[in-house]
């Protein structure tokens, strides 16, 4: 399992966003997706990758079955198109989201990013995984009580989102308090358990990313 610096992960992410926005041919696009799957898997995030692969496979199959016309108003082809491309971007985001907050803060300090920008980003990245876990617990609780019903969708939404709103507010306060106790907003030099260094592997990944980006554009224009 390879460990990359956050900066090289950002290079891959930005390259992916650029390519997703310019690639129009499915063969080239899915080649990009395959490369990203390898990239994410090499960093040890295979489980998250499998879920996204299945989702992209299902959506791509729906596009194929509908001959690129979608399924009427309910599932238009543009919706399928956008979701598939968004999932590819999510693939490139996974390694960034899995980066420990302390390491992110240390790197941002090293990059001279102002803490008014860095702190909200770190809180956001820490907030969503916790909310996801809380959301799952609420759903499990509602299922045990038999409160989830397709026949009463609005009531089910109320049972789901009202506790989620209160829980999210509580989580935000707890995360902010925990971060303050750990000195995340303290001035001075912040340390990290991991060595924050742009290694040779990061240079290689960045060079490969640039090469792949140029190759994808060439393939897009050639075929």
TrEMBL record:
InterPro entries: ABC/ECF_trnsptr_transmembrane, ECF_transporter_component. Keywords: Cell membrane, Membrane, Transmembrane, Transmembrane helix. It is found in: Membrane. GO terms for cellular component: plasma membrane. The keyword Membrane applies. It is a multi-pass membrane protein. The chain crosses the membrane at residues 48-66, 78-97, 201-219. Its main location: membrane. Pfam families: CbiQ. This is Energy-coupling factor transporter transmembrane protein EcfT. It comes from Peptoniphilus harei. The lineage of its organism: Bacteria, Bacillati, Bacillota, Tissierellia, Tissierellales.
């Amino acid at each position: 399992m390879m460990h990359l610096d956050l900066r090289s992960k950002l290079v891959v992410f930005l390259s992916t966003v650029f390519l997703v926005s310019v690639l129009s041919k499915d063969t080239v696009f899915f080649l990009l997706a395959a490369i990203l799957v390898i990239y994410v898997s090499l960093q040890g995030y295979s489980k998250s990758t499998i879920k996204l692969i299945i989702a992209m496979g299902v959506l791509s199959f729906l596009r194929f079955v509908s001959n690129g016309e979608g399924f009427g108003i309910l599932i238009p082809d543009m919706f399928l198109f956008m979701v598939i491309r968004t999932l590819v971007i999510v693939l490139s985001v996974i390694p960034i989201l899995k980066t420990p907050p302390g390491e992110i803060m240390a790197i941002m300090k090293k990059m001279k990013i102002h803490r008014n920008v860095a702190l909200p980003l770190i809180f956001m990245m820490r907030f969503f995984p916790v909310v996801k876990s809380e959301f799952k617990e609420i759903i499990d609780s509602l299922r045990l009580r038999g409160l989830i019903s397709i026949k009463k969708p609005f009531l089910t939404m109320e049972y789901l989102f009202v506790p989620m709103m209160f829980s999210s507010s509580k989580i935000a306060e707890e995360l902010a308090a925990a971060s303050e106790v750990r000195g995340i907003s303290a001035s001075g030099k912040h340390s990290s358990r991991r060595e924050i260094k742009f290694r040779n592997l990061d240079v290689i990944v960045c060079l490969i990313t640039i090469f792949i980006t140029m190759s994808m554009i060439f393939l897009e224009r050639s075929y």
